[in-house]
Specification:
There is one protein chain. The protein has helices spanning about 5-25, 25-40, 45-70, 70-80, 85-115, 120-135, 140-165, 170-180, 190-200, 205-215, 220-250, 260-300, 305-310, 315-330, 335-360, 365, 375-390, 395-400. By secondary structure, the chain is mainly alpha-helical. The chain has one domain (about 5-400): Up-down Bundle (Amino acid/polyamine transporter I), CATH 1.20.1740.10. The longest helix is centred in the last third of the chain and has 39 residues, at about 260-300.
């Protein structure tokens, strides 16, 4: 194995899975289940459109960060002084809010696996937080994170694939409707929601910051960076498609999802008690990996801005998880925080992607590297589209103060 391919297999795959499993959290599972029930086979078109936009966004951000060897907040500060601090604050705040939901989702998964009722949630919430925190106590923290997300990612794919086999979805119809949906216009909001949930907020930076920490930078690593960025989106897409097919198999046979917990009911209806246990595994794995991704990436946004964070990075990551767990224990389901997080997610992507794209025009950031014109144009189109939906998401913030 060559040095280049070896670097991709160790660092590139780890970064890809960190990004992918950061995206596949409790919200991801719920969104996919609800949208599949609503739009049936036509939801495949929303998935296809999301893949294209996600690849454009991720390739732009990862290539520019990778070539420069600079993290998102540092590029932003060079493009517009002070903007890196704003971006870091938004990322960290959004990451904290999402992490509270991740801890809660991981706890629900453990409850399902072991057949516990909600009275035991204090125990399962605490255990979920501890698992994430302990991971960062490892001597080789980044290698431990890589292994953790790869193993859990493989488990998620295998167990959802089992449910797909059990539900026997109409695959032919799903393929046809992926390219010819019944109503293109109705799929606008699901597409924007999926994009925000896949590459919004901290998620688009999670793997990119991982490759920088591992030193997979510079123009000589462009090939590895491209492979890693696309692999991350492919992993997310495989999980999304499998979950889409599993739920589609249930609802096309007349099954009705429980609004209180759509993915859990889909798995139970699709594969009985075993299906519910599988849901528990998927929900726990999704929550646990998202806890790791949110904590690691949120703190990585602070460590080049504040020396104390860089000096005690592990402690800050563990503290981030502990605070998320503590809030979950105290508040339960923090609906307002999650609404705020969703609104922030809609706003962060156009801001972050726009700043990174502008960084590609500065020699002090990328040197002699010439960013592809096609990627640049497509990237700014994504910025415009997501800015539009981000402005609409401000209503979610306003609702918090009524």
């Amino acid at each position: 194995m060559s040095k280049t391919s070896s670097k991709f297999s160790t660092v590139g795959l780890g970064a890809a899975f960190l990004m992918a499993l950061s995206a596949v959290g409790p919200g991801f599972l719920t969104q996919t289940a609800v949208f599949t029930e609503t739009y049936l086979a036509s939801f495949g078109f929303a998935i296809l459109a999301t893949i294209i936009v996600d690849i454009i966004g991720q390739l732009n951000v990862w290539r520019i960060m990778g070539v420069s060897g600079m993290r998102g907040q540092d590029i932003a500060n060079k493009v517009l002084p002070g903007s890196g601090y704003v971006l870091a604050f938004l990322i960290a705040l959004g990451g904290l809010a999402f992490n509270i939901g991740n801890v809660g989702g991981s706890s629900l998964g453990l409850n399902a696996i072991f057949g516990l009722d909600e009275s035991k949630s204090v125990i399962t919430v605490t255990v979920s937080g501890l698992i994430g925190a302990v991971l960062f106590l490892s001597k080789d923290m980044l290698r431990a994170v890589d292994k953790f997300v790869k193993i859990l990612g493989a488990i998620v794919v295998v167990v959802i694939a089992y449910v797909v086999i059990q539900t026997q979805p109409p695959v032919g119809e799903a393929v046809v409707r992926t390219f010819t949906p019944e109503n293109y216009g109705a799929l606008g909001m699901p597409i924007l929601t999926l994009i925000g949930g896949t590459i919004g907020g901290y998620i688009i930076f999670s793997g990119g910051h991982r490759i920088i920490d591992a030193g997979m930078t510079g123009t000589e690593n462009i090939g590895n960076i491209n492979k890693s960025a696309v692999t991350g989106i492919v992993v997310v897409t495989i999980i999304r498609i499998l979950l889409f097919l599993a739920v589609l198999g249930v609802v096309t046979k007349g099954g009705h999802l429980d609004p209180a917990n759509p993915p859990a009911s889909a798995f139970r209806l699709g594969a009985g008690v075993i299906g519910f246990k599988i849901f528990g595994i998927v929900m726990w794995a999704a929550g646990a990996t998202s806890i790791v991704g949110a904590a690691y990436t949120s703190v990585s946004f602070l460590k080049t801005l504040f020396f104390v964070v860089k000096k005690h990075e592990k402690l800050f990551i563990i503290g981030f998880i502990v605070v998320s767990t503590g809030i979950m224990l105290l508040v339960g389901r923090p609906v307002k925080l999650l609404i705020l997080a969703g609104s922030l997610n809609g706003l962060i992507l156009p801001l972050s992607l726009g700043l990174i794209l502008c960084g590609a025009f500065k020699r002090e950031i990328v040197g002699k590297y010439k960013h592809p014109l096609v990627l640049t144009i497509l990237g700014f189109l994504v910025v415009a589209a997501m800015a539009y939906t981000g402005i609409n998401s401000l209503s979610g913030m306003a609702a918090l103060f009524k």
